[in-house]
Specification:
The complex is a heterodimer.
Chain A: E1 4-7, E2 10-14, E3 19-25, E4 30-38, E5 45-50, E6 56-59, E7 62-67, E8 72-77, E9 86-94, E10 101-103, E11 107-112
Parallel strand pairs in A: 2-11
Antiparallel strand pairs in A: 1-3, 3-8, 4-5, 4-9, 6-7, 7-8, 9-10, 9-11
Chain B: E1 5-7, E2 10-13, E3 19-24, E4 31-37, E5 44-50, E6 53-57, E7 64-68, E8 74-78, E9 87-94, E10 106-107, E11 111-115
Parallel strand pairs in B: 2-11
Antiparallel strand pairs in B: 1-3, 3-8, 4-5, 4-9, 5-6, 7-8, 9-10, 9-11
The chains are: A mainly beta, B mainly beta.
C-alpha cells in the first residue's frame, strides 16, 4: 500500500511558470519529508526537505509548504526552467524507523522553452 | 569523488533464473539500502544493511536476499525471477544506520533488470 499519495502524475509548464506538486499522507508517525529529483537514467537526488514543525521551507527557486493538520505538503518550483524537467518524488520517514523512506509515485515535470 | 556505483547497469534474464546485483557505497558510508523502482512508480524499500547486518526489510518475498561485505559493498540476489521483478534496482548509501537529519540517501544510477 502506498503510504504517500502524490499528484499530479505529470505536468507541463512554460518556462518561467510555477510548477506545483502535491503529496498527502495518513501516518501521523511520519516526521521527515524530503523531495527527490530524478533525471532519466540517473538515481534520485535529494532536492529539499522539511520537518512537520515547520510550515514552509525555501531553497532558491524550490519551496516546500507543509500543512500538518491536513497531512499534506507540496513542492513549488518558481520560475521553472527547462533544466528542471525531471521526475519529482515526495517521500516520508517514520519516526523510529529512520532507515526507510516511503516514496510517492512521482510527478514528471516538463518545462517548455 | 566517486558516488554510489552499481553493476551491471542493464541485464536481461528469463523467468525462473537468478540474478545478483552489486553496489559500492560512497567511501566512508557504512549503510547500504536497496530499493526497487518499477516503471512509473516511486522506489520501494527492500533492505537496509549496516555493518554487515540486516537492519531493515521491506515487504518483499524471501526470493529477495542481500548481504554486505567487510568493505561495505553489497549484493542483492533475486531467485526464481518473475516477470513482475522487472524494474530499476537502486542502491543508496548513507554514512550511518539511521538517515542523517537531512534525510539524505545517496542513490546510484541503478541496475535495470528486464525479465522475459
Amino acid at each position: 500500500q502506498q503510504q504517500v499519495k502524490q499528484s499530479p502524475q505529470s505536468l507541463i509548464v512554460q518556462k518561467g511558470g510555477i510548477s506545483i506538486i502535491n503529496c498527502a499522507y495518513e501516518n501521523t508517525a511520519f516526521d521527515y519529508f524530503p523531495w527527490y529529483q530524478q533525471f532519466p537514467g540517473k538515481g534520485p537526488a535529494l532536492l529539499i526537505a522539511i520537518r512537520p514543525d515547520v510550515s514552509e521551507k525555501k531553497e532558491g527557486r524550490f519551496t516546500i509548504s507543509f500543512n500538518k493538520s491536513a497531512k499534506q505538503f507540496s513542492l513549488h518550483i518558481m520560475d521553472s526552467q527547462p533544466g528542471d524537467s525531471a521526475t519529482y518524488f515526495c517521500a516520508a520517514r517514520r519516526r523510529g524507523n529512520d532507515y526507510k523512506l516511503s516514496f510517492g509515485a512521482g510527478t514528471t515535470v516538463t518545462v517548455r522553452a | 569523488d566517486a558516488g554510489v556505483t552499481q553493476s551491471p547497469t542493464h541485464l536481461i534474464k528469463t523467468r525462473g533464473q537468478q540474478v545478483t546485483l552489486r553496489c559500492s557505497p560512497i567511501s566512508g558510508h557504512k549503510s547500504v539500502s536497496w530499493y526497487q523502482q518499477v516503471l512509473g512508480q516511486g522506489p520501494q524499500f527492500i533492505f537496509q544493511y549496516y555493518e554487515k547486518e540486516e537492519r531493515g526489510r521491506g515487504n518483499f518475498p524471501d526470493r529477495f536476499s542481500a548481504r554486505q561485505f567487510p568493505n561495505y559493498s553489497s549484493e542483492l540476489n533475486v531467485n526464481a525471477l518473475l516477470l513482475g521483478d522487472s524494474a530499476l534496482y537502486l542502491c543508496a548509501s548513507s554514512p550511518r544506520m539511521g538517515l542523517p537529519n537531512t534525510g539524505e540517501l545517496f542513490f546510484g544510477e541503478g541496475s535495470r533488470l528486464t525479465v522475459l
